[in-house]
Amino acid sequence: MHHPSAPPAGTGQERVQAAATGLLSRIAALSRALFRAGEFGLTRSEASVLDALEHEPLRVTALAARTGTAQPRVTVVLHQLEERNLVTRVRCAEDRRAVESSLTPDGRRLLAQARQRMAAALLEALQGRVEDSERAVGAARDALTVLADAMDQEVS
C-alpha cells in the first residue's frame, strides 16, 4: 500500500514544486495504460474526440480546444469516426454555416465498453495495493479535476 511522504520543508511554491515533480510523466503513464486497457480499436486522437463528445454535440473549434488538437486534424479525425458510424455531423440549427458533431449509438457503446475494460484493469491493478479501490480512483479523479480546472482557468 502506498503512503504519502511527509511534506517537504520550504516555501509554498517550493513544496508545490516538489509535489509536482514527476506529475506530468505519471499522468502520461496512467493515460497510456488506461488507453491500452480500453482496447478502443482507435487512435488516441479518435478516442479523445469520442470522449469529448460524450455530453454534448460540439463544433470543430470546441473539439480542438477540448482535445488540444489542431482544427485540421480534428476535421480528419471526425471524418474517420463518421466513416465508422461512431459520430454524426449535422448543420448547426442556430448558424447554418457551422457543423456540430455528436456520438452515434455505436460511438456511445464503444466508449462505454472501453471504459468498462479500463475500470476492470484499474481494479485488477489496485487489488492488494489499496484498501478501497473505489475511494482511491474517486480521490484521484477528484484531485485531477481540481488541478485541470485550475489550469484551465489560468489559461483562459
In short:
This protein has 156 residues and is mainly alpha-helical.
What spatial form do the alpha-carbon principal axes imply? globular
The fraction of residues in strands falls at 5-15%
Which strand order spans the largest sheet, edge to edge or round the barrel?
A: 1-3-2
Helix content: 55-70%
The tally of helices reads 7
Radius of gyration: 19 Å
Number of domains: 1
Protein name: HTH marR-type domain-containing protein
Pfam families: MarR_2
Organism: Streptomyces minutiscleroticus
Domain HTH marR-type: 17-153
What does this protein structure show overall?
The chain is globular. It has 156 residues and is mainly alpha-helical. A hairpin with a 7-residue loop joins strand 2 (87-91) and strand 3. The N and C termini lie far apart (38 Å). The model has no long low-confidence stretch (mean pLDDT 88). The protein has seven helices and three strands; from the N terminus they run αααβααββαα. It has a three-stranded antiparallel beta sheet. It has a single domain (41-155), classed as Orthogonal Bundle (Arc Repressor Mutant, subunit A), CATH 1.10.10.10. It has helices at 12-20, 23-38, 44-52, 60-67, 71-83, 105-126, 133-155; strands spanning 58-59, 87-91, 99-103. The protein is 64% helix and 8% strand.
